[in-house]
Specification:
The structure holds 2 protein chains of 2 kinds. By secondary structure, chain A is an alpha/beta fold. Chain A has 7 helices and 10 strands. In chain A, strand 9 and strand 10 form a beta hairpin. Chain B has one domain: ABC transporter involved in vitamin B12 uptake, BtuC, CATH 1.10.3470.10. Helices cover 80% and strands 0% of the residues of chain B. Chain B has 12 helices and no strands. The termini of chain B are far apart. Classes of the chains: A alpha/beta, B mainly alpha.
């Protein structure tokens, strides 16, 4: 069996704020080209976990390694594209066109004294093509719909040519049609381009067929290696801290 | 109208004013987008402490203003990042504290006179050749730093956390931005005055934002508005014997109101 080095290697991670335990002793690994979904109740620590992976929060104890390096020694941040929860909620008065936003994705890699290079512009254009927003490039970000903004934010993340895409419920406030397209796009990025996807979502039913593994986070982590397998009532009750009952819904095709 | 340029002091004031208009509007764009608007007021008052020390101790007040404004900027940034204090409260504390210290220093030193008044409200009569050279040298360095890292500052203003996760050294650049803003404010108080420089830094950008255009166009509109305000303000100041800082600020306010009306939806 081929030995696989994890992109993210998380060991015994805990996060405590003012005596309140947000995450407790989490250990997990994320491998290249995996599609991971993270679910769990609000306040369960999903976003905190992501923020620790990105170095935005320091763990109380435990360790995060990226590509085998400690976070403090990791320099290749362009390999990681991050789309935060608030991505589709923008300050309408901020002076930014869609092109301005997508170009931000190249900022950390441009030469220090130079403007954007031809390669930078090419990658920006490729990202906009992939997200189907070339026609919107001169539109102000504040005038776009939630779905269009979401695509602009993902294009920004893709412009850095990431190997990993981390998304924290970026589809909040986005209409159903745009969401469907969004899930199809994530599937394509994972399957065709081999981009590792880590996706916090509540819509687990919709993407169950696409994902490789499911992490359920509520202070502790439960790793499900077969996400198509339905979570039991007991597991759901433990995860969400409420009584859960399975409902059988019969679908009618029209 | 060109007769005012027959006077050396008006040539100096215009040279200094144009440099300040460029510096204030370009840095002001980042300050407003970063939601740091109140920092300009606080740094202007900190610069006044430097002026007071300079006047009392016999050092160049403009140089001392630069030193004190930069120290204050670092203190603000440090307090905000290290202690997660309410940032507006930090600014308010330093603003009133600085003003109190400045007033006490000049009172004790017996320098409470027209010289201090000119630093509070700006005076085109008081701009010396040495001031113009200082403003030009420090101003060029400040503008260079702003332009060099403009893309990073812009990204940080839009989304600091995503900028950080993309590998941009956000903390370092935040310190750089407040330092540059501090230098620009200290340089500007000769012409515009410490009580009014905040307006020249903030209002042109707010007026430009009314046009709802992209970043580069917003910077250019803001720059044009600042240049127009300084030129018109100084001209009116010369012909009607008005304080230059106040006249410039009224001109920029007039432009802001016009922008607001013309872009009403």
């Amino acid at each position: 069996m081929k030995f696989r080095v994890p992109i993210f290697d998380i060991k015994n991670l805990s996060f405590v704020v003012k005596g309140q335990t947000i995450l407790s002793n989490i250990s997990l690994e994320i491998f290249r080209s995996e599609y991971i979904a993270i679910i769990g109740p609000n306040g369960g620590g999903k976003t905190t976990l992501i923020r620790m992976l990105l170095g935005l929060e320091k763990p109380t104890s435990g360790e995060v390694k990226i590509y085998g390096k400690k976070l403090s020694n990791f320099k290749e941040w362009h390999k990681i594209g991050y789309v935060p929860q608030r991505a589709s909620h923008v300050d309408a008065s901020f002076p930014a066109t869609v092109l301005d936003i997508v170009k931000m994705g190249r900022t950390s890699q441009r030469s220090m004294f130079g403007a954007f290079s031809e390669l930078d512009n090419q990658l920006v254009n490729d990202a906009m093509l992939k997200m189907d927003i070339v026609d919107l490039k001169d539109k102000m970000i504040g005038t776009l719909s939630g779905g269009q903004r979401q695509r602009a934010m993902i294009a920004r993340a893709l412009a850095s040519k990431p190997e990993i895409l981390i998304l924290d419920e970026p589809n909040t406030g986005v209409d159903a049609v745009s969401q469907k397209k969004f899930y199809a796009l994530l599937r394509e990025l994972n399957k065709k381009e081999g981009i590792t996807i880590v996706f916090i979502t509540h819509d687990i039913g919709v993407i169950a067929d696409d994902i490789a593994r499911l992490f359920t986070i509520n202070q502790k982590a439960v790793i499900c290696n077969n996400p198509k397998q339905t979570l039991s009532c007991e597991e759901m009750s433990e995860l969400y801290g409420i009584d859960a009952h399975l409902l059988h819904v019969h679908k009618h095709e029209h | 109208m060109l007769e005012m340029f027959e006077y050396d002091f008006m040539q100096r004031a215009f040279a200094a004013g144009i440099i300040i208009a460029i510096l204030a509007s370009v840095s002001g764009t980042f300050v407003v987008l970063r939601r740091y608007s109140m920092i300009s007021e606080t740094l202007a008052h900190s610069a006044l402490v430097g002026v007071a020390v300079g006047l009392v101790a016999g050092f160049n007040p403009l140089w001392m203003a630069v030193v004190f404004a930069v120290i204050s900027a670092w203190l603000i940034e440090y307090l905000r990042s290290a202690f997660t204090l309410y940032s507006d409260a930090v600014l308010a504390i330093l603003l009133s504290g600085s003003l109190a210290i400045a007033v006490i220093i000049v009172s004790l030193g017996g320098a409470f006179n027209n010289s201090l008044f000119s630093y509070l409200f700006g005076s085109i009569l008081s701009v010396s050749s040495e001031d113009v050279v200082t403003i030009a040298i420090f101003g060029s360095i400040s503008l260079g730093a702003l332009l060099l890292f403009s893309k990073e500052f812009y990204f940080i203003a839009y989304d600091e956390e995503v900028a950080k996760t993309s590998g941009i050294k956000v903390n370092l650049l935040n310190f750089l931005l407040v330092s540059v803003v501090a230098v620009i404010i200290a340089l500007s108080i000769r012409v515009v005055g410490s009580l009014l420089i905040g307006a020249l830094m903030i209002i042109p950008t707010i007026a430009a934002l009314q046009f709802r255009v992209g970043f580069l166009k917003t910077v250019i509109i803001s720059l044009v508005f600042a240049l127009l305000s300084v030129a018109a303000g100084m001209t009116l100041s010369f012909y009607f014997s008005l304080p230059s800082g106040a006249t410039i600020v009224l001109c920029v306010l007039f432009i802001f109101i016009l922008s607001l009306i013309s872009n009403r939806r």
